[in-house]
Amino acid sequence: MSDRPELFTWGFAANPYPAYAWLREHAPVHKAQLPSGVEAWLVTRYADARQALADSRLSKNPAHHDEPDHAKGKTGIPGERSANLMTHLLNIDPPDHTRLRRLVSKAFTPRRVAEFEPRVQDLADRLLDGFAARGSAELIHEFAFPLPIYAICDLLGVPAEDQDDFRDWAGMMIRHGGGPRGGVARAVKQIRAYLADLIHRKRAELGDDLISGLIRASDHGEHLTENEAAAMCFVLLFAGFETTINLIGNGTLALFRNPGQRALLQSAFAEGDGQLVDTAIEEMLRYDGPVELATWRFATEPLDIGGQRIAVGDPVLVVLAAADRDPARFSDENTLDLARADNPHLGFGHGIHYCIGAPLARLEGRIAFRTLLTRLPDVELAVDPEELRWRGGLIMRGLRELPVTFTPEEGIPPRQA
Ligand code: HEM
Predict the structure, then answer these.
(1) Which CATH class is domain 10-405?
(2) Span from the CA of 372 to the centroid of ligand 1 (angstroms)
(3) Could you say which of 170, 181, 316, 329 would form a disulfide bridge with 297 (CB–CB 3.0 to 4.6 Å)?
């Protein structure tokens, strides 16, 4: 491809990698006009991306962007910063970020995640029971979507009887793609009211869940306002579900398209080769990760990225999907190599905003792939890969549907589709 590629078209959404390769080579820090009309710098080389993600002169606070607040909703840049759910980890800087991150780290410990494994396994099995006898399924809606929602609801301590409401709200948020408009605005309002009430109830009766852990941590010296607590629950829910859906969806598609690698992973599960399973998850995150662009950053002073001058107030978007296929860092960058050992991918970000849910995401990914490939060993894509449709959002990369067929599992009565 020698001409400047078109960005943000449907063709680009289906396969953005050739366009990113062009940008990496010809315009590594490129000012692009986004579909919303906003101009932003796209950073596509690995070294520049890593540097930008850790650069404290790039603020996460949208107040540093010079758009008026009311216009931000239309552009996808988080607006209305006061007293709402958007004042969360991904939209704030130190020292508030440091305080809140420390607080959530005390409650969201690796031990809590590890203890959660049997619960996630049970969830995955129950979801699969819903379609295993049918011989066909739509994997996004029946498996990849509900698994992380119910998992994070459980972890937070959302009572079982309320979890289907979250499933509906989450569905509304991803169908309408993030910006606080229409159905999304309604869903956000309902979630805000629900979370405020739930936090209130937990305060009265602390349990063993993450929300209670947050309240306990805040009672031991760290300050946490009611709004910060609700915004924290919101970001844990919503940073944690669409990403994990896409790890399962994009990863399964990559396996379908690379049968040799799929066979490798299947034998790793059969033989209990944990190391291959671990490198496989990392490679899926690198090869076609859930987060295509890191979230918004804004220059608080003039700075250089990759030799390009960035002015105060300019938005910067680090293209993780481009950085993770940079041939200057990854050999055979376009090849899915599940045993890849040298793989410092940026799929979970880098620096102070590095994904706090990475251990949970890895656990969910491992269990989802193991359950799927072990219980339905001949599962296959039911359509031509070219027919698959991708969601058109800016930040996330994921499929709308993933129809599959397989030999029905015996012993489970078939359910209606
Ligand atoms: C495969 C799944 C996941 C991927 C690929 C992913 C990716 C990322 C990335 C790239 C960032 C940094 C964004 C930036 O710097 O602009 C991030 C931050 C974050 N993620 Fe994840 N994530 C995943 C799952 C989860 C889960 C399961 C949770 C929670 C339950 C979660 C919670 C968060 C939070 C709260 C942040 C903000 C951290 C901060 O600003 O300090 N993520 N994630």
Answers:
(1) mainly alpha
(2) 24
(3) 316
